[in-house]
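Reagents: none. Just compute today. GH63 / GH37 / GH78.
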Amino acid sequence: MAHTPSAAMGVSISRDELEKRLPYPILPNRPELVELYWRCWELAARMIRHGTPDNGFAPTYMDAAFGGNIFQWDTCFIAAFARYTREFLPVLPALDNFYGRQEPDGYIAREYRWENGAQLWAKRSGDSINPPLFAWAEWQCYRLHADAERLRRVWSHLDAYYGYLQSWHRLPNGLYWITDMGSGMDNTPRYGAGWIDLTCQQALNARMMAHIARELGDDEAAERYEAEHRSLRSSINTIMWDDEAGFYWDVDMAGLPMKAKTVASFWAILAEVASPDQVRRLVAHLQDPPTFWRAHPFPTLATDHHFYKPHGDYWLGAVWAPTNYMIIKGLRQAGHADFGREAALRHIEAIERVYRATGTVWENYRADEDAPGIPARPDFVGWTGCGPIALLLEEVIGVEVDAPSRTIRWSLREDGRFGVRRLPFGASTLDLEVDERGTVAVHCEMECTLDIDGTRGKGQWRLPPGNHRVHLE
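Predicted 3D structure written out:
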């Protein structure tokens, strides 16, 4: 019997069941965002698929919500929010689908067919790869669950993939090349030889590989990847930074700038390529209303570019969840957390208004009105869940979990009572709630350090397993 994607879908999971199993946000002052949060989980649960003998995919895995084929960078961004489900929604098998198809030279294709598991694009073409974010996705999952055994298992796949990109996508000047389709920004108006996003993504890749190697006790590999990061940072800042414009550009084969202002340049923040002063100047672009700071931030093409389309037209100006997540997490990492939180709220609230008007969540959005982009797929969770799920927990509620060090960092910038229950923390969960008076209630199943900062007060406590109440200074 022929298998079809719809026939291989998992059954719908009720909201009651989801609410019993997943992190439960406490935001009585923002009920509309909580409703959106749960709706996104419902849509995500519909994207559980089952592999077939023909395609050889995992028995159960999370799909990208895009027609049945599996996509590399979609899956990595889905992991950014699906990691909060533990094993309830199978995002790690979705990553394993790609590792299982890795070729001996390290190559992993950007897309594999649902029907038979075959790759779509010619190997070694610019269209054949995707942003190399596997190590970043694995590190984010590890920080939540502290599963060192998984890191050991996937290390060889990550290391080999890095080597493949070095061999086939690195230019003599140290930069990396790709195409618009390969970059994931399908119709972006960029035609350079050295691409700022792929080069920064490879720098991020090196940074994550160094972290993973240190965690696995491989100091030699860690030092090798740290040297890789330093080398890429030097090449990017020497060749691609425009000090007059305060911006990074793609470059042609002669190293001359190709001046299309897109969100691709902001990968330099998350990749720790930009200096504090360069970050400040990049943030000025993000805060600039004529270019990126729109009603719904951040359009993927600056709105003053002559190719910008108000209705989005995919990557000619639409707002996309993965690039917004990248920007906002980079802002927090680089010391601009308040602006990142403001952008996260603006992003989630815009998605919620469109959800209220249309009844669903979309693949992309318009920057200047409450409407989906044209074109945009509905019921897209998919990576659109990065905002209403991951950013709600991480930026609005403000919780950051570092399970390997048994540390919870909580940035209190919301008013009134709020918190979260059943937040994954290693092999256990924890509950956090602050009331109007600044008293924090904690339930933890293992010893942990609670580190609180923000507008409501600050403090640090070492807590044994059990129930606790602490008071902010």
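The chain has a mean pLDDT of 96.
Action item: order primers for follow-up constructs.
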